[in-house]
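Ticket #4471: structure output looks truncated?

Reporter: J.K.
Steps to reproduce: submitted the chain below (504 residues) through the standard prediction queue, then opened the result file.
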Amino acid sequence: MAEPAHILVASVLLSSIAYHQVSALIPALAPTLVDKGLAGQDMLKPGFVRKQQGTGNGNTQNKENKNNNEKDKPKVKLLPEATGVIAASVYILLLSLFAPLPYLSHLVPPALRTSLLPSLNLTAIVDTITGRHHNSPPIVDPSKLLDGSIAFPHHSFATYLASLLSLLTATFLGFLDDVFDIRWRFKVPIPIIASVPLLVTYAAGQGITDVVLPKILGLRWLFNVESTNGVVNLGPLYYIYMSLLSTFCTNSINILAGVNGVEVGQALIIALSIALNDILYLSFDISAFLYSSSSPREPYVVGLGLARGSAELADRHLFSLYFMLPLIGVCCGLLRHNWYPARAFVGDTFCYFAGMAFAVVGILGHFSKTLLLFFIPQIFNFLYSLPQLAGIIPCPRHRLPVLNERTGKLEPSLVVLSKRPNFLLRWVLECLGKCRLVRLDKDDKGTIVRMSNLTILNLILVVCGEMREDTLTLSLMGLQVAGSVVAFGVRYGVAGWFYDASRR
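Returned output as attached by the reporter:
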């Protein structure tokens, strides 16, 4: 089943509007944010002095920066923070304006739908309705346009509105975090609150709570689901899984931040990957753009159409595409001002709303496993950071790299080990050090006293050596692209080894 291409064109135009609006509004509103106190200094630029803390509660600067005279340092300019709220506002407002378009065929009577809707000639629609078209009588009373007799997908529209509500809630809570600097223990459950409208809508639509176990390690035999081809009904546990998914999508971007362009860059690559995955499932009828309105039209369908005639599957990915295209435009506009050297900071607001946008399409599009594949670098960063996040190794507030002002390049930041590591931890760190997965500093007795912070940004610097800030961002974006390539390979190649063709 081919989708009408004009709605997709409208979504692409919306994406272009999002880009230009965000690009224009950030410099226009930046002075206001600074005046209101929503401003900060770039920690990775010359002149910024990071607090020296000898315990696990803070970072340690390199000795050169530590001995510099602060009076000789240039004054660091204040940059506007929380500009992510500008991007989020543009995104949500444009999606609100777009809301009627996917359902226009249900709002317009059949007499108009067939002849006028494919070309989306709104002027002709109005003229025909009011009888101004060739002085002909009205086809239908305009009051009947929203007549209840016309079949309307109320649950689909409710799902769309619930998605907007979740995005709005995530943006609001993210902005509160930027203003009040909420502690991590309270910050983690915020996405769960924002996902409540999604879960309610999902449950109201009798959403499936089944998962399919892969054909490996005898899992299907272990759970006694061989007769159902590996299908397991999780029931309420599935809703817990979806809540945790929204939490992961949001916080995984938030903990991989602090370098100019990193937050927006990784979100842009993920959004492009999801959009590409959506396009693979869709086919579009572009005959309206090839023939004049008076000539007979033969369907001209383009696209791979992996949905293979399933209208439900195609609708899910079309829904996802409508949310991803404006997000791509927003990210591009934001990246213009957040790229090195940054003229604005995106704040936690961007991480919250972007992560929630990914959770929305993954949950309501029913492709959460594929979504997680696009988060391979974030999953690795989370697992790599787990010893610090769990408190096994001291975790400072800021774990981003440090600037060597002599070379102008970034180096991995170090954390002081306040207590001597036990045998097991020391053995693990020694193995990681030999594999060049962590930098270790030892005293004269061979005791580990400092180590690099466990983030993928510091890991890149440990493996590749010091580099410029923009080069580090490009390196991470390159890893994100590589992760997406692996994700597509797993999804459309390796998955066939573990799942039945109809269950992939």
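Triage note (M.O.): checked the attachment and the full token line is present. The longest helix spans residues 5-35.
Status: closed, working as intended.
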